[in-house]
What we know:
4 helices; globular
Amino acid sequence: xxxxxxxxxxxxxxxxxxxxxxxxxxxxxxxxxxxxxxxxxxxxxxxxxxxxxxxxxxxxxxxxxxxxxxxxxxxxxxxx
Length: 80
């Protein structure tokens, strides 16, 4: 039986290598997780580095408030 669209999407998502910008655990650094390709693309430009810094700032603020998820906008506008 063929997989549904949502199942194919989940397969694609799980095959991506996810990490923080520094490569260290988020629990120690407070950084956001994103696919490695996305992080490398953002780190390659000054505007991307600013976007990563803003996302990390929002993530750390949400973590201090005891929230598990932060609306940092890093994935905003991505097709899901």
